[in-house]
Amino acid sequence: MTEEKVERIRRLLTGALAPVELDVIDEGHKHAGHAGEGRGHFFARIVSPAFAGKNPIQRHRMVYEALGDMMPDGIHALSIEARAPGE
């Protein structure tokens, strides 16, 4: 199930932001024993030209928008590293 979520995250981010680099990592093992365990903790590192000229808050909003309904239902926590090429 988690592998399916990772692949869905990758597809959504690729479709919306056309990244030149993208890593999506399941970090659920780091959250054993706290609220939301088993509901999806992920780290996304994304480098995209779409982020050029955007501040960190705007970049994070773009990622959340790309993920749409996965945020409330499929992802409990998401750490984001969002950069433009060359940063």
Automatic annotation (TrEMBL):
SUPFAM superfamilies: BolA-like (SSF82657). InterPro entries: BolA, BolA-like_sf. Gene3D superfamilies: BolA-like. Signal peptide: none annotated. Belongs to the BolA/IbaG family. This is BolA family transcriptional regulator. It comes from Luteibacter sahnii.
